Amino acid sequence: MTMVRTKTRIAALGGGTGLSTMLRGLKSYSDNITAIVTVTDDGGGSGVLRRELNMPPPGDIRNCIQALANAEPAMQELLNYRFREGSLSGQSLGNLFLAALNDMSPTFDAAVQKLSQVLAITGQVLPVTNDDIILEARFSDGAVIRGETTITDYKRQTDAVIERVGLDPAAPAVLPAVLEAIHRAELIVLGPGSLYTSVIPNLLVPGVSDTIRASRAVKVYVMNVMTQDGETEGYTAAHHVRALLRHGGDGLFQYVLLNDRAIPAELTERYRAENAAPVVSDGSELRAMGLTPVFAPVASWAGGLVRHDPAALANALEVTELEVSAAADELASDYDYHRRGICLKRFGSHIQLSTRADYAPQIEKLLQPIQKQSLSQAALETLAVVAYRQPVTKLEIEAVRGVKCDYSVQMLLNRGLIEERGRREV
After folding, report:
1. Are 197 and 150 in contact (CB under 8 A)?
2. What mean pLDDT, rounded, does the chain reach?
3. What is the per-residue pLDDT across 199-232, written as a single tens digit (0 to 9) for each?
4. Which residues, including other chains, have CB under 8 Å from residue 78's CB and lie 6 or more apart?
5. Quick one: 126 exposed, middle or buried, by C-beta within 10 A (0-12, 13-18, 19+)?
6. Is the CB of residue 307 less than 8 Å from the CB of residue 222?
7. pLDDT value at residue 217
8. What pLDDT shows up at residue 85?
9. Rounded to whole angstroms, how far apart are CA atoms 190 and 354?
10. How many Å is the maximal CA-CA distance in the chain?
């Protein structure tokens, strides 16, 4: 399926290869992406630059910038080049380029912005903080281990499990642009990526979790395809989610996106030898937690490594926005829509009509037939109209399966095809 690039505002939080992989796919869907990247890495070339130049680790940031870049292939290849000999052995030119820009800039995020401009990226990439932060983990055996790489090594050497991770300092200063991007986002995505060392660290930076929780965006956690040796051996999907909520609090997301493409047996066996396995998708446990599991064939194993497929993942995350119109007075008076624009969002089989203050110029056309668009039967599992005013009031309407949604909401109400579930304050 060919995607039409939209203006949907997306905030994607994570780190490592998982985030950059997803960004390559999302880039084809929206040109309004903000990647918010953790800065706790202390291994490899990034760790060396961090220690020697007293700068945040550049590697994950650089990978995200390259994922969103619109530069010539030769430039991409140049930035990916790794030196093979001497004191620079193993170091990538892209990391060194970002290190040089950091030395020339007042702050690390300013250096990131300069590299982003050089590569003409789609959207923006932000470090979650400019502060020098160290990841700490408390294990079930009482040990407290400092440093991302040391944490993973300790986990591999013992039977202890990670109970909690934290940051030192405990309250680094979040970039204001990070909170603004989350606040403005229409789609917020957590993951994929290493649970304790890529995804959770972002949630520990003050302000991030609270801003996500307060958002009215569609919020999704992208489950890893495989467990990870040194972090999540034996974890099911529910284990991952509980860890996220234990660190960031409830209300971080509504949906959990899970792979349902079977991994070849020979690959599964090879991964088991490395103490990793496909994540068990215990959907019933997720539903019991009040979450909606969404299944899609998003796994890929090109080159013998099991990863998310960028295009398939972006397709699964696609939020189709269809403008809805019609006579504002008809519903504004009855249902307190307060003359605000309304848009139709689709995530998987779930539909949500939600107010959009930035549709104010179209307030005279709120609820007209949905531009002759018909939604599939599966897409009608949930149809909710959400209206906001001051104080905020929510009105929910649920559709019956099988209804062709080429009518206005009022017409559906009049025909008895959907019913009002009542008001509730939020």
Report:
1. no
2. 78
3. 999 999 999 999 999 988 888 999 999 999 999 9
4. 93
5. buried
6. no
7. 83
8. 85
9. 21
10. 76
DSSP string, 61-91: HHHHHHHH----HHHHHHHH-B--SGGGTT-
Six-digit token string for 355: 């107010």
Specify the residue for token string 């690959």. 267
- Per-residue pLDDT tens over the stretch 342-388: 333 333 333 334 333 333 333 223 333 333 333 333 333 333 333 32
Query: Are the C-beta atoms of residues 325 and 367 closer than 8 Å to each other?
Result: yes
371-379: long-range pairs with CB below 8 Å, 24+ = 371/322, 371/323, 371/324, 371/325, 372/406, 373/322, 373/405, 373/406, 374/404, 374/405, 374/406, 375/346, 375/351, 375/404, 375/405, 377/401, 377/402, 378/349, 379/346, 379/349, 379/351, 379/405
Cα–Cα nearest to 292, from 345, 233, 375, 351: 351
* 71 or 4, higher pLDDT: 71
Phi, then psi, of 341 in degrees rounded to 5: -65, 150
Residue type, 364: E
